[in-house]
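Table S7 (text form). Paired inputs.
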Amino acid sequence: MENFQENEQLKLNRGPAVVVGVSAGGLETLKELLPLIPAGFALPIIIVQHLHPMQDKFFIDCLDSICPLPVREAEEKERVVPGNVFFAPPNYHLLIEKDRTFSLSVDEKVNFSRPSIDVLFETAAEAYGPELIGIVLTGASRDGAAGLRRIKENGGTAIVQDPATARFPAMPSAALAETEVDFVMSILGIGAFLAGIRQSAQ
């Protein structure tokens, strides 16, 4: 019985996932993007937003109040469950293990950041391979560029916010310089793309 339950749980974790990296200008940008995600969206969305190490839950509560999906911080050893928006907790790297569970780390900062977008993207690329969709949004650093390249190398889909529409164009510009991406879109375009995934899966 226990093995049957484990196998059924693993089936729930199969299928695509979306990882998102965002930094400066992130709250305003996510307030535009997350309401565009349709209720019943069948993929997990995992986000690294660069935050102050002592950031309180206001950020999560604010986005949860406007997103059709539940928004919460990821927890150690938690399974990546579809239909939820997960955020890396402040001051922790967020990794995805091969069994598609979360792992939290206090290892050294990467690209001066913890959580690091690259850490999430690179571990997710190994866990999901071609089933992964990676998205780089506004930011003032290079974090996410190397991780998005890894996603593309593993057969995943690479999306970058059009730098001309970003509040801080440095991060999407760095990602474009590093990788031949699949799509360069505005926030409205990214929202429509994600909504289309749900429709095509029905």
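Next pair, protein 2 of 2.
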Amino acid sequence: MTEFKGDKRTKEYKEWKKKHAAASEGLGDTVQKVFQSVKIDKAVKFIAGEDCGCDERKVKLNEMFRYKKPECLTEQEFDLIKMAVDTKKNKFTPDEQNAFVSIYERIFKTKVECTPCSFGKVVYKDLVAVYNQYL
């Protein structure tokens, strides 16, 4: 009988996923992080009290100015993009392009019309940006 020895995902993937989870969803999260870093949040709570409206403001700003936050990559997707980036690959077979388009459509929750031009300028560029953002 095989004994389970814990999480078998790579350390690099675990670190990437941890950073990805901490990414801001929108402007409200970014404003909150800035205010926390310069301690403005504590001053406002001291003056206005615990219910200063900060949480409601954060939610409203996140709704109004949502960042293009992709879903998390699976380890297999992460490894595929990593391989292409590490090898500086710039030519892809139709099957490879279809795999990248499938990843793109899943993580960005959108359909994309893929042409040879749009693959490199949109799909692959955005996937590499997602990959690089969390390294």
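The mean pLDDT is 81.
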